[in-house]
Structures are given as structure tokens and as C-alpha cells.
């Protein structure tokens, strides 16, 4: 995706992913990057991080506030919607608040994009939206549907809506590595929900590149998913203990409310409309047939549509690599 001369707005842009996006987009000489977030302290920290770069505009606002969003999107070319409430254990007890931000906030983004004739909009979703078993996942599942199906009822508006879907980014806020390392450094036992647990490995750079790829190849209604390795949580604990020359014990605490043992990126119902494309999978919308004169995207031209003989589902359990391979990946990323 070429951002040169473009005006980009990132909701939730002061967060971990938002900062990574700002860093990479700035390299392509955009007209401006509008960082939309309700946290003024994080806005200040972001300004300090980027030396008060004049291309970065700090916009205080909440996706729950449609009027603020509509005003913020005037003259915007590209929207990356990353704002969300995402602490799944807390959201199990705050369902209404999750709905207000993760569903109603997404509707506001859609309508503000249509009102301002935005060129492209990408929703940053989560593996938890695939066959959801918790409040956060259920809300993000609905958000995905809002985004993908908005391509088919937008009238003459030009906006292209698509999604990306992946798990927790390594070293992001609330992710497992900084959480475990804090326990190790402070000499505490490491809480383990289930020794069978597996998780995908995705770096900030890979997350950003997936979003850029979605902006490049989307024609509307897709969900873009990265091809990733996965690790066993028990292997991760051993690697981090070795890194800190520690022998911290493990405390089995059982699954948290709404937690899965394995991450799921593509379920069995999505496989028949999924395409293998470059370093991604691309899921087409279920109702794409109702859209006339849709351009044929690059991922369909390659004609690598999946079927159940190739793949029944795509989960972290199937993608696990050895402990030594995980160490090699982490070493390249500078994590150990």
C-alpha cells in the first residue's frame, strides 16, 4: 500500500499496534496521520515518542461518539479501526460495555466512513472472533460481519471495507511474554491455565504488514489472516526461565472465563470460501454473490481456493513448532 500524500486515521492509535503503524506509515511520506484515541496521556507519550512530528495529529475522541468520529474523518483517505475493549476476562462481567465499544463503535466507524466517502477501511479483528466462546470474541465476530457486509449495502459510496484477523502480538500490552517475564523477574510462580495451551507467534512488524497487505489487495468483504508458526506455552515458560537464568515454578490456575486452549483462525465453515495467497489466507464474504461488477482480486486470479481435503480448520495446535525453532524466532526478533 502506498501512503504517499494520503491522510490516514487510526482509531485506538495510541496503543501498541497504533504506534507500530504510525512508525511504518511515516516512512512513506503521508500527508498526515490522525491518531484517534480517548486517552490524552497516551497521546502525549506518542507525541514525545515521535518528536512531535507535524504529520501526526492527536485527536481525542471515543468511537462511541459518532459526531466526533464523523468530524475526525473529514478528508480522510484510509481508516484503520484498531480501537477495542479487549481484556476478555474483564469483559465477561462487562458485556454491555463491550457491546457499546466493540459493536456500536464499529457501526459508528462504518457510518462515518460512508458519510465522508473514505477510500478504504480495515478492521483489526482477533482470532477470538472465529467460533467465539467469550464476550470479546462474540462482539468482534459481529464487528467483522458489520465490516465485511457493509460492502453490499452502501449504495453509491465508494468505501472498501475489509478485516484482518490474528492473535496477540508479541510484547503488546497485556500479552503473555511481558506478563510471564514480570513474574520471573519478581521471583513469583508463573500462572499457567492449561499445559496443553498453544498460541500463534506474530511480531509487530508482521501485524503491520498484514494490514498493509489487506489495504493493497482488498476489493471488499474479505478477512485477511497471516500464516504463522505457533508455540506451546510450556515451551515459552522454559525459554523465558533460561533467558533470566531462573527456575521459577509454575502454578496451574485453570482456564480463565472465556479462554481457549488453542487459538483458531479459520473454522470449518469458512474453509470453502478461503484462498491461499502469498503469506496469507483470504476469506471471502458469504454474500459476495449479491454484489454486481465486483473486480476480480489478485487472490482469486491465482485460483488457490481451499477445500476440506486441504484444510479442515486453521488452529495454533496444528502450527506448533519445536522449542528450538521458537528460540530461533525469538532470537531474530530480539526477544531473547
CATH class: Alpha Beta
| Approximate strand percentage | 15-25%
List low-pLDDT spans: none
Structural class of the secondary elements? alpha/beta
Pfam family, one: Polysacc_synt_2
Organism: Methanococcus voltae
Family: Belongs to the polysaccharide synthase family.
InterPro entries: NAD(P)-bd_dom_sf, Polysac_CapD-like, Polysaccharide_Synthase-Rel
Describe, in short, the structure shown.
This protein is α/β, with parallel strands linked by helices and 336 residues long. 35% of the residues lie in helices and 19% in strands.
Explain this structure to me?
The protein has helices spanning 16-26, 40-49, 66-72, 88-91, 95-116, 135-149, 176-185, 204-217, 233-243, 298-301, 323-332; strands at residues 7-11, 32-37, 56-60, 78-81, 120-126, 160-166, 190-192, 198-200, 223-226, 230-232, 250-252, 264-266, 274-277, 280-283, 314-315. Strands 3-2-1-4-5-6-9-14-13 form a nine-stranded mixed beta sheet, with helices on both faces. Strands 7-11 form a two-stranded parallel sheet. A two-stranded antiparallel sheet has the order 8-10. It is globular and about 60 Å long. It is α/β, with parallel strands linked by helices and 336 residues long. The mean pLDDT is 92. Helix 2 (40-49) links the parallel strand 2 (32-37) and strand 3. It starts with 6 loop residues before the first strand and ends with a helix. The protein has a single domain (7-167, 203-227, 264-315), classed as NAD(P)-binding Rossmann-like Domain (Rossmann fold, 3-Layer(aba) Sandwich).
Which characteristics define this entry?
15 strands, globular, 11 helices, two-stranded parallel ribbon, 19% strand, Rossmann fold, 336 residues, alpha/beta
Amino acid at each position: 500500500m502506498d501512503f504517499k500524500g494520503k491522510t490516514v486515521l487510526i482509531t485506538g492509535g495510541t496503543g501498541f499496534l497504533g504506534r507500530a503503524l504510525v512508525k511504518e506509515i511515516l516512512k512513506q511520506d503521508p500527508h498526515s496521520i490522525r491518531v484517534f484515541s480517548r486517552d490524552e496521556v497516551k497521546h502525549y507519550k506518542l507525541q514525545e515518542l515521535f518528536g512531535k512530528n507535524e504529520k501526526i495529529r492527536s485527536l481525542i475522541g471515543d468511537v462511541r461518539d459518532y459526531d466526533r468520529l464523523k468530524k475526525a474523518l473529514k478528508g480522510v483517505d484510509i481508516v484503520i479501526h484498531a480501537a477495542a475493549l479487549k481484556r476478555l476476562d474483564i469483559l465477561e462481567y462487562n458485556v454491555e460495555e463491550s457491546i457499546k465499544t466493540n459493536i456500536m463503535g464499529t457501526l459508528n466507524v462504518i457510518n462515518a466512513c460512508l458519510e465522508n466517502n473514505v477510500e478504504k477501511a480495515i478492521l483489526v479483528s482477533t482470532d477470538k472472533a472465529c467460533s467465539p466462546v467469550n464476550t470479546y470474541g462474540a462482539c468482534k465476530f459481529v464487528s467483522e460481519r458489520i465490516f465485511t457486509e457493509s460492502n453490499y449495502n452502501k449504495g453509491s459510496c465508494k468505501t472498501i471495507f475489509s478485516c484482518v484477523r490474528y492473535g496477540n502480538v508479541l510484547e503488546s500490552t497485556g500479552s503473555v511474554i511481558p506478563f510471564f517475564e514480570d513474574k520471573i523477574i519478581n521471583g513469583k510462580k508463573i500462572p499457567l491455565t492449561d499445559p496443553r495451551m498453544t498460541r500463534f507467534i506474530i511480531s509487530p512488524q508482521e501485524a503491520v504488514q498484514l494490514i498493509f497487505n489487506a489495504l493493497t489487495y482488498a476489493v471488499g468483504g474479505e478477512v485477511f489472516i497471516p500464516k504463522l508458526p505457533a508455540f506451546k506455552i510450556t515451551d515459552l515458560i522454559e525459554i523465558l526461565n533460561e533467558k533470566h537464568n531462573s527456575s521459577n515454578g509454575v502454578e496451574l490456575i485453570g482456564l480463565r472465563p472465556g479462554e481457549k486452549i488453542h487459538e483458531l483462525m479459520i473454522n470449518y465453515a469458512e474453509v470453502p470460501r478461503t484462498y491461499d495467497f502469498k503469506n496469507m489466507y483470504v476469506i471471502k464474504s458469504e454474500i459476495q454473490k449479491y454484489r454486481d461488477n465486483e473486480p476480480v482480486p489478485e487472490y482469486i486470479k491465482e485460483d488457490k481456493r481451499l477445500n476440506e481435503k486441504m484444510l479442515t480448520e486453521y488452529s495454533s495446535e496444528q502450527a506448533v513448532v519445536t522449542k528450538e525453532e521458537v528460540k530461533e524466532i525469538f532470537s531474530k526478533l530480539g526477544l531473547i
